[in-house]
Design brief:
Elements lengths: L1 E3 L10 E4 L5 H12 L4 E6 L10 E5 L5 H10 L5 E4 L14 H27 L4 E6 L11 H20 L4 E7 L18 H14 L1 E5 L2 H8 L5 H9 L1
Parallel strand pairs: 2-3, 2-5, 3-4, 5-6, 6-7, 7-8
Antiparallel strand pairs: 1-8
Helix pairs in contact: 1-5, 2-3, 3-4
Bound molecules: NADP nicotinamide-adenine-dinucleotide phosphate.
Length: 240
């Protein structure tokens, strides 16, 4: 389901960067961008890696580290597409977990997105059309009790602010909402999981069409559609 301002960014021939592009959803996103003709994709990781394709440029990046982000922005100054995918979940009950652990989730999932987007905004602005995708979650809207949900909810608000701010320079900012995806992060989850390749296809489509939001699976679409209704009904259903 796409909600578009009809000013997408081209992928064909473009240079993109995917944070956490060496595994999980990030890796699927890198491949999808290449499938659609991207000239080059920087795939970042906190450790060194050796991609299988010459069009994938490995780049070391820790989104919680100002200096690391500044260095990456200098190296990858030719990008017109950024996918802010890097994320962590530490299982942090809001009322009991050490605040230091919740801060790590915020540093990565919220401030990481802000840090990277700030650093790359000038590079994006050098292209007539450019794009930022922030990988959020259905948990931007509903919470089961952990710091992760706080980080995704705050990142959604940051995404809305970035959209308003970067619009003038021709950068479309898109929020990707998804429930479970079949990656390391959800390895212990028994519930149905989306195929990251399918979510990557939807994300690439949103980049070229300029969609503001991607609702990637049935769970996400159902939750979003119920937000104007009774919270009691929604949480009763989620708890079932
Ligand atoms: N899997 C799900 O069910 C699900 C559902 C909704 C949303 N999401 C979101 O989807 C995104 C991708 O997650 P995933 O499912 O692919 O999880 P994953 O397999 O655990 O991968 C997490 C990625 O984030 C990177 N990362 C973590 N901390 C980082 C840091 N400080 N700096 C730079 N990179 C960092 C990792 O890179 P390295 O370890 O290589 O450095 C890795 O590539 C996350 O934002 C996650 O919150 C996932």
């Amino acid at each position: 389901m796409l909600d578009t301002d009809s000013h997408g960014a081209p992928i064909e021939g473009a240079v993109a960067l995917v944070t956490g592009g060496n595994r999980g959803f990030g890796r699927a996103m890198v491949q999808e961008l290449l499938n659609r003709g991207a000239a080059k994709v920087y795939a970042t990781s906190r450790s060194s890696h050796s991609p299988h394709d010459a069009r994938i440029i490995p780049l070391e990046l820790d989104v919680t580290d100002d200096r690391s982000v500044a260095t990456a922005a200098k190296t990858a100054a030719d990008v017109s597409i950024i996918v802010n995918n890097a994320g962590v979940t530490l299982g942090t009950p809001v009322l009991h977990a050490p605040l230091a652990d919740i801060r790590i989730e915020l540093e990565t999932n919220l401030f990481g997105i802000i840090r990277v987007t700030r650093a790359f905004a000038p590079a994006l602005g050098r292209h007539p059309r450019s794009a930022v995708v922030n990988v959020l979650s259905v948990l931007s809207w509903v919470a089961f009790g952990s710091g992760y949900e706080i980080s995704k909810s705050a990142a959604q608000s940051a995404t809305n602010s970035m959209r308003m701010t970067l619009r003038e320079q021709g950068t479309t900012v898109t929020a990707l909402h998804v429930a479970y995806m079949d990656t390391d992060m959800a390895a212990d989850v028994k519930a149905p999981k989306a195929d990251p390749r399918d979510v990557a296809r939807q994300t690439a489509e949103a980049i070229v069409t300029g969609a503001y939001e991607i609702l990637a699976d049935d769970t996400t679409r159902a939750v979003k559609s119920q937000l104007s209704g009774s919270l009691t009904a929604l949480y009763t259903q989620l708890a079932a």
